[in-house]
Every structure is written in C-alpha cells, then in structure tokens.
Amino acid sequence: MTTQIKNVEKIFGSFRALQQINLDINEGEFVAILGPSGCGKTTLLRLLAGFDSPTSGEVVMKNQVVADEMSFLPPEKRNIGMVFQSFALWPHMNVRDHIRFPLKHHQFLSEDLKKGMDFRVDEVLKMVDMYHLGERMPSELSGGQKQRVALARAIAPKPALLLMDEPLSSLDAELRMSMRKEIQQLHHLTGASIVYVTHDQSEALAMADKIVVMNKGIIEQVGTPKEIYSSPTSPFVASFVGKANLIQGKWEGTEFYPFHQHAIKWDGTSVTSELRGENIFPARPEQLKISFREGGLKGVITNVQYQGKEIHYTVTIEDEQWVIHQDLDAMFSIGEEVYIHLKESQTRAVKKQLHFV
Ligand SMILES: Nc1ncnc2c1ncn2[C@@H]1O[C@H](COP(=O)(O)OP(=O)(O)OP(=O)(O)O)[C@@H](O)[C@H]1O
C-alpha cells in the first residue's frame, strides 16, 4: 500500500507543529522519521494513525483519502498496526490473548486469518520468540519481552502499514541493539510498510530504507541512509546525523579554504552544492586528524574523552569548538597546541603554497 502525505500542516492554537509536509511511503518500505525532540515526529505519526487530523493537506492510503480538511477516517478504519514506546499492554490479558485480540477486532482481516486465528497466534509468537511464554501476564515479563508482545500484537492481523513510535527507547542499550535486528527480521518476514519514529540517528541509519530528517516541523531531507549520512543538503542534517563540525570558509568550485585561510585548501568534491552555497564544509569527527605537523589549522585541545577503541577530542580553533575522533596511536593532552588537517584521502595538499609539507 502506498501512503501519501500531501501538503500537510498541523497547527495547535497559534503553534505550527507541521509545515508543508510531503512524503510517499511505498509498499514494503521501511521509513524512519528522524529528528530532535519537539520537531513534530509524533504529530506526523498520529496523523497517519488517525489519532489526529491535519489542519490542511491530505493523507492518502491505497488511493483513498483518509484525512483532509473535510473528512477523517478513524484508526480502526485504517489498515494499520501500532507499536508504542510504552508497550501499552493490557494488565489483565496474558500474552496469547494480546495477540488474539486484534485478530478478533481488526476490520481488514483476511478470510484465511479469520479461519486460522489460533494458527496465526502461534505463528507470530514463534516469530518473536515468545511461544513458550504465551500464558504469562504482562507483570511477569521483562521489558524486552513486553516489547516483543507489542510487536507481535501489531503484526498479527498483517496490517499494510506498521507505525512505530520510539519502540526501543525504554529498553537498555544492549537490548535495543538486539531488538533492532528482530524488527528488521519482522520487516523482511511480513513485508509490511513501516514508519518508524526515532530521535536516534544510528537506529535510523541501521534499519531504514529511507530516512526523513525533520527539524522544527519541516522535512529537511529525505534519502537513503547513505545519502543522508554522506551527502547532507543542510547544515542541520550534517550536524544532527553525521555529527559534523560545520566549518565556515570560502568555496572556490569544489575547493574549500577553511576560515578563509589561503594557505590551506581542502578537497570538497563530495560536499553537496547546498552546503557550498552556505559557505560551510561539514567535517565529520572521523574525517579530521590532529597532529603536531604544521600546515593545518592551529588549535588547542580543550577536552579529551577516552572511549576504548578511540579518543574523542574537543579542539578550540578561533573560538569554535570542533569534535575530532582519533585512534589510539597518537595521544594529546588538554592545553596542547596542535594542527588540524583533513585526512589525506579527503584533501589534496597544497604543496607549492606550504613549503613545510
Ligand atoms: N496537542 C498539542 N497541543 C499543543 N502543542 C502540541 C500538541 N501536541 C504536540 N504539540 C507541540 O508540537 C511540537 C511537536 O511535538 P511532537 O510530539 O510531534 O514532537 P516529537 O518530535 O515527537 O518530540 P519527542 O521526540 O520529544 O517525542 C512540540 O513543540 C509540541 O509541544
């Protein structure tokens, strides 16, 4: 089922929570809505679910307008499943009954599923590895098991569109990583379209086919994880997704002079024209190198964080603070004067201008 969001706006009182949102969710696609707190992710998901209606614009599912300024189809009349951060399990129902419930009440249930409800309950319980715990009550389950039940309940009636609102954020870090894989597997097994709201860029990069980056109620960029990470088209996407240092300077074609320093020239062939237009070079922490070798931008180490396999440095350069990740082969201390270079693969050294290189 293709779902389309066309020119959608949502206004609460005088606050514009969503502006001119246009988005297609294709059949079987895993779409992550990524953005910081308050950017409008949940509001957008609620419009898709039918918990709220747009102020203007329309939501179309399978060629049917399900919401616009005039009409509105409630959640139970949309062929969707939902998974929430809070699990939202019913305390009086055991695991098996949680899965059976939507099978009894979902309006779009196929004839096959209507005839084989018990078979389907067993099938999804096995999919989420909860078959052996079918008789347990929610109070007898761990956080990860509760979220598996919530996932099983959502996929049981085979909805065409699965909406997930930060489904892993109340789990601990290790469990989050393993549940990511389980959600990916469920996506492959069910073939459902998924809209997955998260503020965690690594979750979006790891799982999604398409990432929609939102900021202050607008869509900043839509693209594959690789496009979003490697070719951000706005300073916000570069800093939010790639944690890039937004370095000011002057562009001449595809060459960049950081802080307008003519002795230092960086190759910026991979930088998008949008960022060049803003006189910015987005340098991710791993693209920069700290050394005592002159010829780079001069700075001072102002913070050091040991991370095991690498070290995260904060370097102050002309009143700006850059974050740079280095491996362990060279160590620097707070207060040391250093030089920052773009890594060799990223740059063409300007040998004739820099006699010391
Ligand atoms: N019912 C409402 N009335 C007024 N303002 C609202 C309402 N619902 C949401 N907002 C505002 O709309 C903005 C977007 O909220 P939303 O919950 O969509 O953000 P979010 O990106 O999901 O954030 P988070 O990651 O913190 O959940 C926020 O500024 C919020 O305060």
Automatic annotation (TrEMBL):
Species: Metabacillus halosaccharovorans
The protein's name: ABC transporter ATP-binding protein
SUPFAM superfamilies found in the cross-reference section: MOP-like, P-loop containing nucleoside triphosphate hydrolases
Highest taxon, organism lineage: Bacteria
All copies of domain ABC transporter, residue ranges: 3-241
Presence of the UniProt keyword RNA-binding in the record: no
Keywords from the UniProt entry: ATP-binding, Cell membrane, Membrane, Nucleotide-binding, Translocase, Transport
Listed GO MF terms: ATP binding
